Amino acid sequence: MSGGGAAVVRTIIVDDQEPFLAAAGAVVDRTPGFEVVGRATDGHAALALVDELSPDLVVMDVRMPGLDGIGAAQEMARRPHAPIVILVSSHARADLPAELERTGATYLHKEELLPARLTEVWERHGRTLGA
């Protein structure tokens, strides 16, 4: 489904905190053309889901135990059908590691994760909604 249009933007949510998994899932569910196809609580589980489900989009926390969002995003970028990645955090961008810039991911503060922003990021990557 990557490239061009997609009938549905298949999305994985990744965060080690259940409240944010639920909140991010609700945002995706409220975004026309997007659906949650999987959830993970760390970077290793996220990579396994990417390999299993080939999602179009991954919304992932920067800071998690084990493999963090930055490391997982770098690994996802090496996949043959790499998803678009949005890295999120409750911390200001200036307080996050510089490596975030080298992931190719879009950064959003968790409070900025809204339906309009999901659509904006999707379209900024040259993708369109609908088939």
TrEMBL record:
This protein's name: Response regulator
Protein keywords: DNA-binding, Phosphoprotein, Transcription, Transcription regulation
Chain positions found as 4-aspartylphosphate: 61
Organism for this UniProt entry: Actinomarinicola tropica
Pfam families the record matches: Response_reg
GO function terms (MF aspect): DNA binding
Superkingdom per UniProt: Bacteria
Classification via InterPro entries: CheY-like_superfamily, NreC/VraR/RcsB-like_REC, Sig_transdc_resp-reg_receiver, WalR-like
SUPFAM superfamilies: CheY-like (SSF52172)
Ranges of residues in domain Response regulatory: 10-126
SMART domains, A to Z: REC (SM00448)
